[in-house]
């Protein structure tokens, strides 16, 4: 019995990613992980504090969060070098969820408790999604809508941090209000020159170092110089806000207490944060797994990030996500395993215990500079411009997502981004590309007559392609197009559906097909299907459509259908005489020019 229990415990331990990583750890990795951990810490501390303030929380909570999420992911995360922590993309979402609930009393302790409960909810969502193998949910946000969302988020962060950068405050609930307040404060002379000089100088220094000397820890250099300047010139006496003395030591294990009425209000924010965190995790894990030769385990990644959020939440932390920039720093520094993150967590803990006053003279505007430079990395203006050139409808989605974030707020923005992505999928199914096909000399097969106006056709025969599954949403559009083709002068006797793109026919579409075929037959027109996939053909037989549509009107290929028609009628190919087909193009159609005829 004891041996069986021992084997069970060993099996459970081997299932923990951190234990598996320890069992395969190589001695030659140790020095590289230690060095990478030291380098990473120089970035973790200022960013952790800055992103905590971005979330509307005390700076110290950013360090608590960083320590616990690194340790939690080291135990349960499958990636060897992925780095977690407070994130610039989550900060505004946390603030938008938590701050309205504490606006009445402005109690920092209540804000921390709410943020911790939010992290617990995010952890529960991610772990449940992992168990249910719902990693595909990250695909709910398309690339164009994500570009728009991130651009809107970058603008929101930038405008929100400018007052702190310049030394004043703006009380507003939305981007327009913040812009108006910012303009009013600037024109009224509220800017503190010393604060503005530190903040703007910090931004310039970070951007210059990142561009010219990418391997230099730009944020660390800026922080050291900012603290030195604040101490040497006594900038606190010149109106420059400083971080001040951080609490000494480490917080105790804490189960956050909030009102039950707050939970429903936190749930929407938790779902949005979990979705963004999931998308970040899958994309970053995929990118770095490809570079390190690892195999991505999406569901395990969700569980690892969920555990990291839970660990942070129980020690006065807030929601976290993976960080591409910090992971890249760790990778460049030579990180080989999650020991790098453990070293970073240990060094931050030692700093809090031994030297809590190390950052007391760090200017607040320097933290704002860290956030602003991070927001600039979120923006993808080039991606938006590329969408404008390549596909205007997806650029419109990008613009709508941007407007949703900028005008309505971060949480409504993520809802709009997801809704637009889903609606775009539905739009493509509802209004797919459809066209007639013809024979083109010198090319095998049958081709779009819109691209090849000179394509030959057979009198009495129309070959029609509908590039989508035939479902309830588009069945009537399909019917209308077929009726239009059947009503042409001269009237065709066969309409051959090149059905290879039809991956499904649902019951609604089957009823429409039955009614359509009966109507066409009454007019002497026959509906014929070619290249219908076997699973779809079996569905049609199960719907008993073959009682209406003759089984003889199903062909394995378009060529077989055309050969049967020619054998029956003796029709000969005739040159195309029209510039455009009667079929309607989809909304995203780009017509390529036909090749030059020899």
Automatic annotation (TrEMBL):
Topological category with respect to the lipid bilayer: Multi-pass membrane protein
Domain of life where this protein originates: Bacteria
Statement: the UniProt record of this protein carries the keyword Transmembrane helix: yes
Region (Disordered): 573-598
Pfam families per UniProt: STAS, Sulfate_transp
Subcellular location field: Membrane
Protein name: Sulfate permease
């Amino acid at each position: 019995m004891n041996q069986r229990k021992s084997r069970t415990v060993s099996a459970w331990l081997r299932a923990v990613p951190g234990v598996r990583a320890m069992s395969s750890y190589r001695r030659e990795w140790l020095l590289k992980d230690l060095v990478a951990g030291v380098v990473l810490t120089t970035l973790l501390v200022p960013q952790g504090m800055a992103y905590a303030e971005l979330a509307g929380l005390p700076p110290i909570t950013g360090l608590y969060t960083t320590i616990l999420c690194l340790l939690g992911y080291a135990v349960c995360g499958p990636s060897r070098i992925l780095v977690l922590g407070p994130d610039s993309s989550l900060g505004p979402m946390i603030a938008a969820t938590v701050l309205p609930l504490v606006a009445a009393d402005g109690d920092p302790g209540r804000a921390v408790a709410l943020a911790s409960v939010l992290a617990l909810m995010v952890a529960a969502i991610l772990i449940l999604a992992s168990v249910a193998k719902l990693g595909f949910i990250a695909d709910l946000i398309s690339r164009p809508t994500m570009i728009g969302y991130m651009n809107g988020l970058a603008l929101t962060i930038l405008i929100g941090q400018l007052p702190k950068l310049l030394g004043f405050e703006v009380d507003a609930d939305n981007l327009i209000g913040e812009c108006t307040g910012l303009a009013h404060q600037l024109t009224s002379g509220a800017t503190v020159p010393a604060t503005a000089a530190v903040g703007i100088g910090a931004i310039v220094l970070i951007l210059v170092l990142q561009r010219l000397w990418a391997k230099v820890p730009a944020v660390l250099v800026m922080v050291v110089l900012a603290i030195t300047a604040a101490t040497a010139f006594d900038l606190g006496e010149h109106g420059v806000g400083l971080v001040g003395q951080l609490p000494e030591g480490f917080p105790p294990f804490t189960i956050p207490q909030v009102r039950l009425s707050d939970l429903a209000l936190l749930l929407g924010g938790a779902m949005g944060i979990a979705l963004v965190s999931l998308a970040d995790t899958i994309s970053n894990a995929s990118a770095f797994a490809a570079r390190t030769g690892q195999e991505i385990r999406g569901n395990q990644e969700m569980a690892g990030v969920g555990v990291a959020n839970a660990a942070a939440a129980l020690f006065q932390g807030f929601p976290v996500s993976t960080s591409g920039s910090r992971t890249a720093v760790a990778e460049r520094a030579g990180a080989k395993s999650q020991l790098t993150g453990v070293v970073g967590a240990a060094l931050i803990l030692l700093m809090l215990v031994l030297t809590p006053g190390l950052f007391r003279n760090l200017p607040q505007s320097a933290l704002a500079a860290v956030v602003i430079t991070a927001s600039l990395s979120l923006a993808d203006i080039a991606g938006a411009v590329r969408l404008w050139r390549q596909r205007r409808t997806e650029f419109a989605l990008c613009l709508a997502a941007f407007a949703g974030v900028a005008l309505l707020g971060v949480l409504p923005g993520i809802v709009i981004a997801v809704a637009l992505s889903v609606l775009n999928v539905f739009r493509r199914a509802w209004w797919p590309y459809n066209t007639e096909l013809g024979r083109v000399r010198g090319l095998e097969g049958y081709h779009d007559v819109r691209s090849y106006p000179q394509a030959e056709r057979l009198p009495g025969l129309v070959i029609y392609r509908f590039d989508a599954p035939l479902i309830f949403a588009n069945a009537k559009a399909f019917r209308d197009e077929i009726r239009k083709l059947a009503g042409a002068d001269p009237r065709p006797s066969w309409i051959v559906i090149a059905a290879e793109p039809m991956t499904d026919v649902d019951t609604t579409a089957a009823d429409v097909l039955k009614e359509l075929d009966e109507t066409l037959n009454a007019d002497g027109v026959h509906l014929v299907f070619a290249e219908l996939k076997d699973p779809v053909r079996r569905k049609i037989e199960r719907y008993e459509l073959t009682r209406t549509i003759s089984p003889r009107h199903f062909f394995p290929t378009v060529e077989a259908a055309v050969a049967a028609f020619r054998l029956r009628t003796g029709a000969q190919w005739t040159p195309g005489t029209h510039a455009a087909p009667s079929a309607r193009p989809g909304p995203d159609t780009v017509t390529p020019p036909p090749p030059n005829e020899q």
